[in-house]
Amino acid sequence: MCGINGFNWKDEYIIEKMNSSLRHRGPDDEGIYVDEEVSLGHLRLSIIDLSENGHQPMSDRQDKFFIIYNGEVYNFQALREELELLGYSFKSNTDTEVILYSYMQWKERCLEKFNGMFAFAVYDSESKRLFLARDRMGIKPLYYYFDEKNEVFLFSSEIPPLLEHKIDIEPNKKLIKDYLLYNVSDHTDETFFGGIKKIPKGCYATFDLMRCELEIKEWYNIKYNERFAGTYEEAISTFRDLMVDSVDIRLISDVPVGTCLSGGIDSSSIACLINRKMKIKTFSAVYNGYERDESRYISIVAEKTGMANYRVHPTAEKLREDLFKIIKLIGEPFPSASIYAQNCVQKLAKGNDVTVVLDGQGADELLAGYHYFLGFYLVDLLKTLRLKRFASECYNLIKGKEYMIGIQSSLYLLLPIFIREQIFLRESLLSREMMNGSVATTEYFKNFSDCRSLGQSLEFHLKYRLEQLLKWEDRNSMGNQTESRVPFLDYRIIEFISGLPDDFIIREGRTKALLRDAMIDIVPSEILKRRDKIGYETPDAYWLKTEDFEKLLSDWFLRGEPLCREYIDLKKLRHQIKEHIHKNKNHARNLWKTIFLEAWLKTFFPNRNRM
Predict the structure, then answer these.
(1) N or C, which terminus of the chain has less Cβ within 10 Å?
(2) pLDDT of residue 143
(3) Nearest in space to 414 (alpha carbons), one of 381, 459, 370
(4) pLDDT tens for residues 118-134?
(5) pLDDT > 70: percent of the chain
(6) 502 near 380, Cβ under 8 Å?
């Protein structure tokens, strides 16, 4: 796992400065390549082939093509054999070299052959072109800035290295508005920095260095449709086989491997599948005395597998101490303190000599893990007059006692669209200026409102909700010099699940029915029977009442004039702060979003709105 940088002119000093900004992503090696047309930089976290042969930028034997690469392609050995039959010879055992020769052989079609997570750039020194690409789901990041007028093209694994250049940036009001309204941050190719964008997931870009022209094309797009013709039992068997192989290939590493363990179904499934082959370390975040602490379930899995479990206890005091550090690492605002807990788990792994960590990210979006997915399913059953199944699902929901969110989401989806939108507006802290339409919004709410079935809502989540989780996963792992791998997002699993009927995913009132049934006799029954949904949840509401955050809220928002006052209804915010602290009303979601937005502005735009 690594960090990559580049731009379209020669400057060793600036490319080294960009590399310095990314050093946390690659402590093991550093390299640059410059000529009259480009400057390329690379930081390496060594995972496969730890020798000097893996040094990047890496070139072919004729020094015509140069690659900088971040990620892992798990089927690289099979591709290497295919390339060797075509006459290619290798000087390393890395997947980097396989990707380079794959591009030379198949050009952009090589992307379809890769099973993994990746963001890379290939420079063709003869044609004077850059080729940049991201993996199917956007697991690995790739940002860019393109000023066509001044012929400036920059790219990097993260945003801060781009800021080493003298570029004009402003907070992106459109993204801030969606963040405050819908809790989203990575649903477009834009970022919170106006002018800085992402190469979209499942896309590649070509940049003509002579003409200074950028072209972006999509190479992958997932579509949900019921194309699977087998039985539910056949689907269980196929899914189990895919999960086994997906986990197994993600254990390939020349450095120690561990896994995150929250006690939920997703991480427990991964830990128990790993346990078939080996014993590794597991890592968890716990909160003594918190009613939603998952220690009991973590212990059940640890006892079942016999794998050592290491635990970290994130606190409000430690978050306050690390607040600006985590904001700088993530690079953009985020809506919950749970992102900090994830960071603590990755730090725990690195502190126990583990460099590769498996995680359960993506299962909720693939398999309808959030309870509000029940609403999409029930409403679709009702509208399509599948009344017998509707009645059966409602009965099982009520019997399972976790039905309120399903009912609430069903009722919400039956409301007219303008009322649904008003609910978001009423619950937000948006300022009048941001709310009155003078600030543009994205197509996020429209795309959400267009969902008419469970399959469409799952497709929506993969396209517009998942990437922010992957960004946080990437920053938290790389910020602690670990590599995070996500078995549920193997493209073979995604394509299989996207072809299943809705009632294979939600069944008998259970979310993730397919996963639960596939893991029988593998995962403890106490875990499979869980109906609650927690994840990395922190005691968000309580933490805001601690001395550290009560003082922060007072200093930043009650007594001070915050930088975010342009976007926030300050009077409403102050009222919610007082209610949360003194009247036991829970406004944690709005307050944390505002804290992280303000911290981001203080970090990257400290002089904004100053008189």
Answers:
(1) C
(2) 98
(3) 381
(4) 999 999 999 999 999 99
(5) 98
(6) yes
Residue of 2, 110, 344, 564 marked active site: 2
What DSSP designation does 570 have? H
Indicate left, alpha or beta for 532 from its phi (over 0: left) and psi (-120 to 50: alpha).
beta
Q: Is 517 helix (H, G, I), strand (E, B) or coil?
A: helix
The answer to whether the beta carbons of residues 265 and 241 sit under 8 Å apart is no
Which secondary-structure segment (H or E) carries 7?
strand 2-7
Tokens 């809506």 found at? 335
Alpha-carbon distances of 230 from 223, 237, 239, 241, rounded to whole Å: 19, 11, 12, 15
How many whole angstroms separate alpha carbon 290 and alpha carbon 296? 12
Sign of torsion, CA 153 158 159 161? negative
At 294 the three-state DSSP class reads coil
User: How high is the pLDDT of residue 30?
Assistant: 96
d(CA 485, CA 487): 6
pTM for this model (two decimals):
0.95
Find the radius of gyration of the CA atoms of the chain: 24
Cα(44)–Cα(29) distance, integer angstroms: 5
Beta bridge partners of 40: 6, 33
- Concerning whether 2 is annotated as a catalytic residue, the answer is yes
Q: What are the tens digits of pLDDT across the range 552-574?
A: 999 999 998 999 999 999 999 99
CA 373 to CA 430: how far, in whole Å?
27
Which candidate, 160, 244, 174, places its Cα nearest to that of 487?
A: 244
The separation between CA 458 and the C-alpha centre of its own chain, rounded to angstroms, equals 16
Alpha-carbon span 452 to 224, nearest angstrom: 12
